[in-house]
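Collaboration report, partner site 2.

Our partner group contributed sequences for two proteins of shared interest, and the home lab folded both. The records are reproduced in the order in which they were received, starting with the first partner submission.
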Amino acid sequence: MQDARVPKPMLSAEQAVMQMLAEVSAITQQVTVPLNQALDRVLAQPVISSMNVPGYDNAAMDGYALRAGDIQPNQPLAVAGIALAGHAFTDKVPSASCVRIMTGAALPAGLDTVVMQEQVTLSETDMQQQILCQFVPAVGEHVRRAGEDICQGAQVFAAGHKLRPADLGLLASLGIAQVQVLRQLKVAIFSSGDELIPPGQALPEGHIYDSNRYVIAAMLQRLGVEVLDLGLLPDDPAAIEQAFLRAMAQADVLITSAGVSVGDADYTRQILHKLGQVNFWQVAIKPGKPFAFGKLQACWFFGLPGNPVAAVVTLEQLVQPVLRKLSGEGGQPSATLLKAQCDVPLKKQPGRRDYQRGWYWQDTTGLKVKTLGSQSSGMLSSIANANCYIVLERDSGSLPAGEMVSILPFSVMLG
């Protein structure tokens, strides 16, 4: 039996994320939305194409549609007519003839090839246009076949796919005007602390402006969730408990900033124990050690540190993958670490994975990176002026300039 006086080892970042992902399940409620409101929504059902795309054989270039077998050395082809996009040539095309055709126009029946206009010589005799092809093309050249992009009956997108701008264009090309998506995840947030003052008000001595709520809300909006802002709360147990109760009634997730450490006025953790459960409350990362995960009946809880940079790092690195799963996103790609040469020495104590803020760039020798000033967890400028994290693993110590390090470019939440 473990001695209660000996603290449990802190979870690593990977262990924390894996434990949270194992606990949560995606929302299941579906809604129908018009295509022009579907950006960043998660598909509730697979999309199956009811048609071929393109729907007919058509020209990939401006030129002349013909039968490749009709082309003989020094034998011109008569131009029988013209085919335009939206205006097909429907007459029968005689042998040894061709049709002037524009990009996207339907290929006339019986023809199998398009020759670019730059590759023929055009002449006119007795009011009859003729072309002389300067080479023998391959059958099917410059022809887009029906179903070449998408075949009728094919799955276009799987359930759990998050719709991007190009996806909406593809759905529109299939004639789809509305889609079944999962409802948006609803995330409640609040900040707490008697030292915090809303922006726009005079700043009394010994106080700071509430910045966490603004950056957290903005990051959440990048994920496409619905944000319920419960405001800035004082260090008052009753007010914090009321915010918890409102989140439990109205939201899928509650994210707080500050109040999960062991200070005398850190009431968030106390209320969480009263109303719900705490799964863990420390993670071996820097910044961001005081991070809590738990549940309030049907509402999941994430308690972020109060220091602004620590709040940003834990939201992006620990909470983001869990919110994506809750939102129903499937097939989430894992973050890709890159290797870069660091231009400056790096300070670090072993014991926690460190996410130092940096700026990376490419030069003729490869990727380079540098830190940006102070790495204090209270200085948001180190995030605002950065484009990546320099990730130093748990057992790593300080490193001299010139070392190769792992970097993690900012995700969409910060990019």
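Second partner submission, folded after the first:
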Amino acid sequence: MPIGVHFGWNFAQGGIFSASVSGKDAPRGLLDGETSGPLLLSGGEFGPEASAYSVLAGVVVTVVFLWLAKRRGTIVPRRRRPAATLAG
């Protein structure tokens, strides 16, 4: 799932909107998009994935997936290492 979402994001960003993908110039896409504005909102030269909007969207999606996993009972508890016994 994460690989597919990442691929879709990069494809839309570069292949459709002609925006920078991970700081690299994208080939000409279907639309000729140009990002402008404050660095925090536009992502600057790195591209839209470095913007506050992308980080916020990632946090929201993560929270939703964690909520769904908890609701379905599919979160696996972390394994604890057994306490080391002192031989002495």
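Feedback sent to the partner group on the second submission included the following. Helices lie at 2-16, 39-42, 52-72. The chain has a mean pLDDT of 83.
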